[in-house]
Design a protein that fits this description.
Blueprint: H1 2-8, H2 18-30, H3 39-42, E1 47-53, E2 59-65, E3 77-85, E4 91-97, E5 101-106, E6 109-114, E7 123-128, E8 134-136, E9 146-149, E10 155-161, H4 166-173, E11 188-194, E12 200-202, E13 208-214, E14 220-226, H5 231-236, E15 239-244, E16 249-253, E17 259-264, E18 270-275, E19 286-291, E20 297-299, E21 307-312, E22 319-325, E23 328-334, E24 341-346, E25 351-357, E26 362-368, E27 371-379, E28 382-385, E29 401-407, E30 413-419, E31 430-436, H6 456-461, E32 465-470, H7 479-482, H8 492-506, E33 510-520, H9 522-532, E34 540-544, H10 550-556, H11 560-567, H12 577-582, E35 596-601, H13 610-622, E36 627-632, H14 642-659, H15 678-682
Parallel strand pairs: 31-32, 31-33, 33-34, 34-35, 35-36
Antiparallel strand pairs: 1-2, 2-3, 3-4, 5-6, 6-7, 7-8, 9-10, 10-11, 11-12, 13-14, 14-15, 15-16, 17-18, 18-19, 19-20, 21-22, 22-23, 23-24, 25-26, 26-27, 27-28, 29-30, 30-32
Length: 684
């Protein structure tokens, strides 16, 4: 402080007040070393999310562009670009659209959803890729929610939510906006638009349509229909139906549990689909083949120690698929007769997250451990990157990322990603933060792993190891591995975290007394458990949107049936109250000796805000352990607003910095609740 007082007395330029100068010096003094990736840089990262092969019209792709401080408070934008040849063997980017969605080619035109100037709702619009002219395609009574062209381009199948009843509209206009839980939803129906006549007809009258695919001959659709337009129904109760152009609906199979992509065979007699293996399977990751006429289904990937994320079926005999096997992701083909899987691209340095496949060109969206997702063109075993969304990133020093396998105490082998501190020196021990993923039906892949809530390279820049474990119960390792948590919440899976600490300690990489843990949702539950029941192992914990009392979580979430079938093993909460009480961090709050930072949105439908609130109160009143609870107004199950994302990154990193310093700091008072946003404002 003496240094600051002296500096404040110095003669300053007229444009800079003493107060501004002191704030600047404080920012410089408290800032992490000027190496590696900083939070403000993370808030500027752009990433490609999808690619479309537009044939003669080139390549289209969508890019997620963050809203930076100079553009005010809000969410990231999703923009559509076209890659145009630059005459020198490369491409230049052309911005096409800053809004709209559902992009699909229609001859040499791009079609998408958007709101015409003379309409109160969205319709299908078209844009010429030659001159950029936009025209209206459909004219519908209630608008278009999503759409798909028929293969013969005569029809558009589209969905729309039922109109609100007139009585309800009058009530709302008078100010009566009460919500009747689970009852006042409106279903999503499937409609048909005929390009020859402009006529619109409704194809479904019961249930909600969450997904649909045209048959190759344009005579019918496969539709994923659930009884109600509720999140829980979209998780657990979607069943495969066929819908013809006259509105005849027929359920063709009572697929068990969760349902993913569907894809018709070229001859229209079979339907490949991704499904859970059974209703207790946490994840739709297995591929099945359904005979439409007989209704018989057979598994194509039974016993596969991985998971299939997406499928398509083009004009060839094989199914195209995006597949995960452990931390590796790749594009593959699946033989519909033998079920044999052949890797086409990815699986090495590239982590594939999307693809567009033609006979003469293969395009993928993929990332690496050193760069977020971009568009790549495949040529045999060679890959060519076509986009460069963050050219500045090549000048940032990053920590090394490598896949690591660990044998646990009960001889279960787990895999994860270890990110090294920037400037790592062999023989030196570093602090480590375990980043626990949510779900638990999820997993980390060997690609880009840094965002506002997955600290990754931001931790590396501050001198930490970051461990991203695919603990037991993760996807990508087969159905049995995914079910490890069933009946044993925070049992073997939590031991995986402790065994990882011991493993890296034996290797001489980490200081076992300076280990932190953090995550969101199920990862937040993991961090809350670590701070209470497993408190002796962790010097700091960050718990984002966590459930902390599993009994009441079931009663307040928007996915109670998913919990019942998958995680509760078809046993109600009151029938296993003792077990659920024992596996809840709230029960063990009085044991907490780990400084705990809790964060969450006030409008979270998945994990009610009362969950972190209860643990905050319990730790606050039962212990002297530092605890803080940060609420984000209006946010749901994760932060979408740019300022809330940045605040989260700053607060959580500072919590780790404060409590993972050398020495024992468990009883140190928390850092100030005020946060220095200097870097954010400096962008204006």
């Amino acid at each position: 402080m003496y240094v600051l007082r002296v500096l404040a007395r110095l003669s300053l330029p007229r444009a800079m007040t003493k107060q501004k100068f002191v704030v600047l010096v404080l920012a410089l003094v408290s800032a992490p070393p000027a190496q590696g990736l900083t939070p403000i840089q993370v808030m500027q990262i752009r990433t490609v999310s999808s690619v479309i092969d537009a044939g003669e019209q080139g390549i289209l792709f969508t890019r997620i562009v963050p809203r930076t401080s100079d553009r005010g408070v809000g969410r990231a934008g999703r923009y559509l670009f076209q890659l145009v040849p630059d005459g020198a063997g490369g491409f230049e980017e052309k911005l096409l659209l800053t809004e709209g969605g559902g992009y699909a080619m229609w001859g040499d035109k791009l079609t998408f959803t958007g709101r015409p100037k003379d309409s109160a709702h969205a319709e299908v619009l078209s844009m010429s890729l030659r001159d950029g002219k936009v025209a209206r395609v459909t004219l519908t009574p209630h608008g278009v929610r999503s759409f798909k062209w028929s293969p013969n381009f005569r029809y558009i199948a589209f969905t729309q939510m039922d109109a609100r009843p007139e009585r309800a509209s009058k009530r709302i206009n008078l100010g009566f906006k009460q919500k009747i839980f689970d009852e006042d939803y409106r279903d999503i129906r499937l409609y048909l638009w005929d390009s020859r006549t402009g006529a619109v007809s409704r194809l479904t009258t019961k249930g909600t349509v969450f997904g649909y695919e045209w048959s190759p001959d344009s005579s019918r659709l496969a539709a994923a229909i659930a009884p109600r337009n509720l999140v829980d129904d979209s998780y657990m109760f979607k069943r495969i139906h066929t819908v013809d152009l006259n509105g005849k609906v027929k359920k063709v199979i009572d697929n068990p549990g969760k349902l993913g992509d569907m894809a018709w065979s070229p001859d229209g007699t079979k339907l490949a689909y991704i499904s859970a293996a059974d209703k207790r399977d946490p994840h739709a990751g297995m591929v099945y083949l359904l005979d439409i006429d007989t209704g018989k289904s057979k598994p194509l990937t039974e016993g596969f120690l991985g998971a299939v994320a997406h499928i398509r079926w083009g004009h060839g005999p094989k199914i195209q698929a995006q597949v995960s096997k452990g931390v590796r992701t790749f594009v593959a083909t699946i033989d519909p007769e033998k079920g044999e899987l052949e890797v086409i691209a990815g699986g090495g340095d590239l982590s594939v997250s999307g693809f567009s496949w033609r006979k003469d060109r293969q395009l993928v969206v993929a990332s690496t451990g050193a760069h977020p997702a971009e568009v790549f063109e495949l040529d045999g075993s060679d890959t060519k990157r076509l986009t460069n969304s963050n050219p500045w990133l090549s000048k940032v020093e990053l920590g090394r990322q490598e896949a690591v396998r660990i044998s646990t105490r009960d001889h279960v082998e787990i895999e994860g990603l270890l990110l090294y501190p920037v400037g790592y020196q062999e023989g030196k021990r570093y602090p480590m933060v375990i980043v626990a993923h949510g779900g638990p039906e999820s997993h980390f892949v060997d690609g880009w792993n840094t965002s506002y809530s997955r600290w990754g390279q931001m931790l590396c820049a501050r001198g930490y190891f970051a461990w991203y474990p695919n603990y037991r119960s993760s996807t990508g390792y087969g159905v049995d591995f995914t079910k490890h948590d069933h009946g044993d919440l925070m049992g073997g899976e939590f031991n995986d975290h402790i065994d990882a600490i011991a493993h890296f300690d034996r290797q001489g990489l980490i200081d076992p007394k300076r280990v932190g843990i953090g995550g969101g949702s199920y990862g937040g539950y993991t961090a809350a458990w670590a701070a209470t029941k497993g408190t002796e192992h962790f010097a700091a914990a960050v718990s984002f949107v966590p459930f902390v009392d599993i009994r009441t979580k079931w009663y307040t979430t928007d996915i109670p049936w998913e919990f019942y079938y998958v995680h509760y093993q078809e046993t109600h909460a009151h029938e296993q109250a003792g077990y659920l009480r024992d596996r809840s961090p709230l029960t063990h709050a009085a044991r907490c000796r780990t400084p705990l930072l809790l964060l969450g949105g006030t409008a979270d439908p998945r994990v009610h805000p009362s969950q972190p609130h209860m643990l905050y109160r319990a730790v606050k009143f039962a212990t002297k352990t530092p605890v803080r609870y940060v609420q984000y107004p209006g946010e749901g199950h994760g932060n979408r607003t740019n300022t809330n994302q940045y605040d989260y990154a700053l607060r959580t990193l500072r919590w780790f910095d404060h409590y993972l310093k050398p020495g024992d700091h468990r009883e140190d008072p928390p850092p100030s609740y005020e946060v220095d946003y200097t870097e954010w404002y400096r962008r204006v």
